[in-house]
Amino acid sequence: MSMSDERWPPITEATIRDLARSSSADRGQSYYERGAVGEVVRRGKNVRADVEGSQYQPYTVTIEFDDAGVARTECSCPYDHGGICKHRVAVLLTCLRNPERIDDRPPVSELIEGTSRERLEELLIELAENRPEIAEWIEPRLTPADATASDTTVSVNIESIRKRADHALPKPGQRGHSDAYAEANRMASELDELIEQAQQALDAGDGETAVEILEAVTEVLATNRWLGLLPYDVTDLYETLATLAETFAEAMLLVELSENEREQWAQRLTEWDEKIQHFTGRPTLAVAADAAREGWDDDRLQQALDGALTEGELDVDEPEYVDGLATVRLSVLERQGRIDEYLNLARAAGKTQQYAVMLAREGEIQAASNCAIETLSTPQSLLEIAKTLRDTGNPMAALDVAEHGLAVEGFRKDKLAEWLRDRAASLGEEDLALRAGIVAFEESPSPSTYGAVEELAGDEWESVRSKLLKSLREQHPTSEHAAEVFLEEDLYDEAIDVADRSDRFGVVETVVEAVTEHRSQWVIRTCKSNAEPIVEQGKHDSYETAVRWLRYAGEAAQEGDEFDEWREYVEAMREEHYRKYKLRPMLDDLLDEVRSPVDGEVSSDG
Questions:
Q1: In whole angstroms, what is the distance from residue 134 CA to residue 213 CA?
Q2: From residue 341, how far is each of 95, 251, 348 by CA, in Å?
Q3: What digits encode the pLDDT tens for the residues 50-75?
Q4: Average pLDDT over residues 494-499
């Protein structure tokens, strides 16, 4: 189904709010309302628009949609603070609220259809000559003539690889609380580039070069002192080391080795793994050692590849944190295009998700759907199959699989429900979209998921609203965003109840800021109870936090006509803790800053 046959754009107001930080969403709304969005042109799934901003030249916004929503966005503005910028928000709002403003033009693929090769070459050359940046973009993407004529050997400078791996390591003297995380992320990024070279060699069928690259990188990691220079909670670095192990395992399965060479490689990989484990705390290269030792020679493995074993009959023991040998073997088979053997092994090894994904890619849509619905038992795995079915051009089959996931409990059910909500809405399946939206809210309550249900419910909103709020009140433990939903509905007591049960300062602070005018007594009491332990225990690094709580209490005291009592309370605290030299000036400044309403009126009249 083409995009023009579906609801367009496939987004909701809630989706737009969810893509941006609240400040960007508010400013984008203002830009939209004042007409800052200029001409909006749509070509197929891509939208391009100019938005007037703070500079003389307007900013250019590009948005790519897919059938589930916004796939990619770009803006020429310098914004880089999380979420999409106000200019992109304004364009999305224009697409959603004023689709008649959009100038629909044919995609470039349709424009050039039927055009001769000679004419296309002339246009491309003319464009590149007039726009030098286009030439710069084209040059590295053109494959030299001799590259396609060469064999599958990939040429690399191994000594250069070693130097780059060594450069990636943190150096003694660079350790420090403020820099350690940046160093770990830099190391992960630079190692990723080297591992990618090995993966390119594998893509070319050159296992020997891949092994040389990985050997150089791993030897540097295992023989240099870097383990004590980095923090142990950097996710990117763990993922990089896992990718190194998986790529090495693939390389071991692609190269031809004698039995003696296999044992030598297994021993080396095990020794390296023991060194790296001082950082990871768990086996990482063990799967590569297993690949080196076992290869493809096992009789039971051969039976599985030939299709002689039934579902789950091949006994596999997969580690928890990295891909195991069965998964790596499947990657190799896929890389080599050995699809029948891939399916046989996936079925025999009990790799149902991989089996269903490959069926979908091979066009066996009904078989893939049946396999997913009958055998998969987690929302995350069902979501992956649904996405694959969608990507292969089978949207209704994708809906069926995702709909089944609504009845399955487990990790990422909220993500599955949100995906199904937006996907079903874009296809006009309104009842399914609403049902998925309700599940998304129940699994992950937030203003965004709440607003999405409101948009989908239409005339049913009042009855649906009551059910959502009832489910929210009954949640134990309560979602950290539940208070925000209650606040949107002006249900202050319910929001306060969430804050009282929460151990997250952010939740409490959100409620405090919102109910100061309406529940001043609770705000004063809560803020005092949060400030007092910090002061009593002399947590000087947290004095600013304590003063912030006291400031909130002062603002509530102004609303509740209790300002004098609050001032006496802060003055008493200042006198009692006068020896805390960092705290006293902060309290002095607070007393000067928060004035009584009467004082404020006098000063403003003066």
A1: 33
A2: 47, 19, 10
A3: 998 877 788 899 999 887 678 889 99
A4: 92
For residue 561, which of 528, 587, 594, 597 has the smallest C-alpha distance? 597
CA 552 to chain centre: 34
pLDDT over 60 (residue 138): yes
What is the amino acid identity at position 217?
A: V
Alpha helices in 228-324 (DSSP H): 235-254, 259-280, 286-294, 299-305
The tokens of 322 are what?
């990295």
Q: What 3-state DSSP class applies to 272?
A: helix
- Considering only CA atoms, which of 271, 270, 171 is closest in space to residue 228? 171
Euclidean distance between CA atoms 12 and 45, whole angstroms: 17
How much of the chain, in percent, has pLDDT values that exceed 90? 54
Please write the tens of the pLDDT for every residue from 420-455.
Answer: 998 898 888 999 999 999 999 999 898 888 988 998
Residue 147 has pLDDT above 60, yes or no: no
Tokens read off for 47: 């939208």
pLDDT of residue 374: 95
Q: What pTM value is reported for the model?
A: 0.71
The conformation of residue 257, written as its DSSP 8-state character, comes to: -
Q: How far is CA 172 from the centre of its chain?
A: 33
> What Å distances lie between residue 384 and 283, 359, 360, 378, 412, CA to CA?
27, 13, 11, 10, 11
CB neighbour list of residue 227: distance below 8 Å, 6 or more residues apart:
278, 279
Q: State how far the Cα of 471 lies from the Cα of 449, in Å rounded to an integer.
A: 14
Sequence-distant (≥ 6) Cβ neighbours of residue 274 within 8 angstroms: none
The continuous run of DSSP H or E covering 42 comes out as: strand 37-43
**What is the CB neighbour count within 10 angstroms for residue 171?**
13
The CA distances from residue 81 to 23, 27, 507, in Å, are 11, 14, 22
CA angle 578, 583, 585 (to 5 degrees): 85
Residue 214's closest CA among 266, 181, 249? Answer: 249
Q: Whole-angstrom Cα distance, residue 361 to residue 391?
A: 9
Best CA proximity match to 196, nearest among 182, 213, 183: 213
